[in-house]
Amino acid sequence: MTRMQKTSFILLSDTHDYQFGDNASSKLQLLVPKVEVLLHCGDLTQVGGIPAFKKALKMLNNFDAELKLVIAGNHDLELDEGWCKAHLEEDEDYLDDHARAMENPIPAGVHIVMTHGPPKGFRDENLGCENTLHAVQRVKPLIHCFSHIHEGYGANKIVWDDEEKAKDDLVNDYPQAIDLHIESGKETLMVNAATLDGEHQPSNAPWIINLDLPSS
Known about the structure:
It is built from three helices and ten strands. It has helices spanning 50-61, 81-87, 130-139; strands at 4-12, 35-40, 65-70, 112-114, 143-146, 154-159, 165-166, 178-180, 187-192, 207-214. Helix 3 (130-139) links the parallel strand 4 (112-114) and strand 5. It has one domain (4-214): Purple Acid Phosphatase, chain A, domain 2 (4-Layer Sandwich). The strands form two sheets. The protein has a five-stranded mixed beta sheet, with no helix packed on it. Strands 4-5-9-6-7 form a five-stranded mixed beta sheet, with no helix packed on it. The longest helix has 12 residues, at 50-61. By secondary structure, it is of the alpha/beta class. Residues 10-151 form the Calcineurin-like phosphoesterase domain. It comes from Botrytis paeoniae. This is Calcineurin-like phosphoesterase domain-containing protein.
């Protein structure tokens, strides 16, 4: 029998140069609790640039997380492989993955999937990617975190049956964590974690999730 371990996550994306506590609504100025894993799904900056990336790294350093996983968005212009590998600190790694989902499929058994853009049909304002949807349908991860489409902010648990039913919207109780049980191979938590809303205002709180993961 697979041994499960409760793991805490904080999910955010599309911060676009935003610093938590700067001109924010009161809920975004609350202290963020310590978590084990931080996921940021891209668009750290508005137009790239070394000063903006330094500011973004400073923002991420304010989060107390054992592991921080960050991917680039379409606004993060300098985050190419060559530049990153030349400027990384000793304790930082660049994970190579330039191929699209249809060219470099997500391997079976993956529990957490991060993309910048949404899958077609889920919190995408009809702008999602069909290839991403097919990849997520095949793998059925426990969490798929994404954004890019700010207006799609929110989260749903998806049941992968014949109708691909989306359960009711989750209520974000930030800074309190949401305890969830996701049935492996049958359900996926879809999270659009955009920090900025459709008007590019920092009105959306991060998602803090407690999730049971298989223990290694």
